[in-house]
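Hi team,

Filling in the usual template for the complex we talked about on Friday. All components are listed, including any nucleic acid strands or ligand strings, so the model treats them as one assembly.

SUBMITTER: L.P.
PURPOSE: interface mapping
COMPONENTS: two
RESIDUES: 229
SEQUENCES:
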Amino acid sequence: AQSVTQPDIHITVSEGASLELRCNYSYGATPYLFWYVQSPGQGLQLLLKYFSGDTLVQGIKGFEAEFKRSQSSFNLRKPSVHWSDAAEYFCAVGTFGNEKLTFGTGTRLTIIP
Amino acid sequence: GAVVSQHPSWVICKSGTSVKIECRSLDFQATTMFWYRQFPKQSLMLMATSNEGSKATYEQGVEKDKFLINHASLTLSTLTVTSAHPEDSSFYICSASSGQGSNEQFFGPGTRLTVL
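RESULT (copied from the run log):
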């Protein structure tokens, strides 16, 4: 069965600093990978996704993520965070032919001035 | 595009009553819709998967008689929490997929249910 691990429960970053959120997955074949962001009391918004091709994917709001098959990772990065980036971030994995997604436990991002 | 709405956004009800939550795909046809439950500061727990015109598939441990799901059209799915109790209080989120093999789900804004 597929699984997703987000090792960091909570990360605090200064505004303007760079950010990397970790995501590791477990699945035998090539997965479909997603990063979603959730603001308090809101639904989830898709930041970016990887299905195939270029392993570095660009998303909205200046985010990017890199698929590394050898490390089973799909880490999310942003070169300079803004206070509005404070939210909960979820990594998710899916597989071809199965529409279900498996979500990680989430990483809460706090931005300090 | 790919907008999913939920109604209501929040609801408060008395214990023992039933509550219906609607999930609509506004600009695409959703062959599959998903219902999730999220406890405070936790991840999303998939409750069930529904396909238009067929019975929902419930995840293990989810009571199908308590959480009734109907997916009557390609743009509407409903979740009815029957005989609600305080332990049913939670944030319920739906998502929809167009079923084109991409696994991408589009999420609604969620419904906060509080049972008194």
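MY TAKE: The interface with chain A takes residues 4, 6, 32, 34, 41-44, 46, 49, 91, 93, 95, 97, 99, 101-110, 112 of chain B (CB under 8 Å). The two ends of chain B are 37 Å apart (CA to CA).

Thanks, L.
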